[in-house]
Amino acid sequence: MEKNRKRKREYSNLPKGMRKGAYLFCYILAIPAIYGIIKYFIINSQSILMAFSEGELFSSPFTLDHFKRLFSEFAFDSVTGNPGPIFIATKNTLVYFGVSIVQQTLSYFVAYFLYKKIPGHSVFRFILFLPAVIAPVISVSVFKNLIRVEGPIWNIWEKLTGNGYDDLLVYDTTATKTIVAYCLLQGFGTSFLILVGAMNRIPEEIIESANLDGCKTFGEFIHIIFPLTWGTFSVFLLLTVAMIFTSSGPILYFTNGGAYTYTLGFWIFDQVRGNSTNYPAAIGVFFTVIGIPIVLIVRFITNKIDTEVTY
User: Fold this and answer.
1) Residue 210: exposure state from Cβ atoms within 10 A (0-12, 13-18, ≥19)
2) 47 or 108: which leads in pLDDT
3) Residue 269 in domain
4) For a 10 Å CB count at each end of the chain, is N or C smaller?
5) So what's the pLDDT on residue 20?
């Protein structure tokens, strides 16, 4: 109460012109909040209702058939022994999620080496950042030309082994692996730059004091760099986990979902593209319900690990 009274007194002491400007500033800040309410509450609430509807919203009876279909497409076909489409999509999604975790971890180590200013660090920084500014259509086209039959990689492979290889993007045994390889070669995005910035904020006195005490590179990373930058890295980790069921690669550019390369995100996109909305909505609701507790558990763990060091 005392704080509120103090704020009112401070605000009342402002000139009238500044008061109007303060009101205008508050109104401008309210625009994103209103947009967020419209986007995340109204639109998403309709999507949730569509998951329990057979046809058009508010005109069809309540049903759980979409969720029954979802569980059936998780199972293997008793006749052919092939997995259902949702099982394949979930498996591929988790593969790309694993790739994201690997990329975030590697970007952390890369950031440390750039922070230590290894010889040629400026060149390495430019090379690592370059894929982030190149359009995916261009980089995918270049990669596909490199690995195509009778392309540069194919010729090198033939000379090394004596045999070439078939189109890697046609068969289900190699298509997803090829796209995963591209994602790993694509680089780390911009996360390593932010991590380098977090490391550069560490006072030099701390590093120098540790070095005087005999702290080597490994000990410096484990006992100084890691605790002081854990807050930044944990945010990236939490954001990656939050996208566990939306993780994907450039599937549209590579195979358009063929050769069993589709993920959950691409599968939903393909269904909506074909004017099917109710079943994709049910899948979205199902995996959201699963994903929320996973994110909360990871957040709880990261908060426990956080050493709460500030500088």
Assistant:
1) middle
2) 108
3) yes
4) N
5) 56
DSSP code of residue 39: I
- What is the number of domains present in the chain? 1
Phi-psi region of 275 (alpha: psi -120 to 50; beta: other; left: phi over 0): left
**Structural domain range at position 224:** 85-305
Please, which contacts does 102-105 make with residues 24 or more away whose CB atoms are closer than 8 Å? 102/184, 103/183, 103/184, 103/188, 103/189, 103/191, 104/188, 104/191, 104/233, 104/236, 104/237, 104/240
Q: Residue 152 is encoded by which pair of tokens?
A: 């540069």
Q: Which residues of 107-145 are buried (b: 16+ CB within 10 A; e: fewer)?
A: bbebbbebbeeeeeeeeebeebeeeeeeeeeebbeebbe
Q: Specify if 129 maps to a domain.
A: yes
Handedness of CA 211, 213, 217, 223 (dihedral sign): negative
Q: Hey, what are 220's tokens?
A: 């410096």
- How many separate helices (H) and strands (E) can be counted in the chain? 16, 0
Q: DSSP assignment of 256-297, as one string?
A: TTTTTT--HHHHHHHHHHTT--HHHHHHHHHHHHHHHHHHHH
- From the list 250, 229, 247, the residue with the least C-alpha distance to 239 is 247
Residue 303 is predicted with a pLDDT of 84
Residue-wise pLDDT for 10-63, tens only, equals: 545 555 555 555 667 777 888 888 887 777 777 778 888 888 888 777 777 888
Residue 52 resides in a domain: no
CB 147 within 8 A of CB 154: yes
Read off the tokens for 128: 């690592």
Q: What is the pLDDT of residue 204?
A: 87
State how far the Cα of 265 lies from the Cα of 244, in Å rounded to an integer. Answer: 11
287 lies in a domain?
yes
Residue 179 structure tokens? 């796209």
Structure tokens at 311: 């500088």
- Helical pair 121-133 and 191-200, crossing angle rounded to 10 deg: 140
Which residue type is seen at 207? I
**CATH value at residue 163:** 1.10.3720.10
How is residue 272 written in tokens? 């909506």
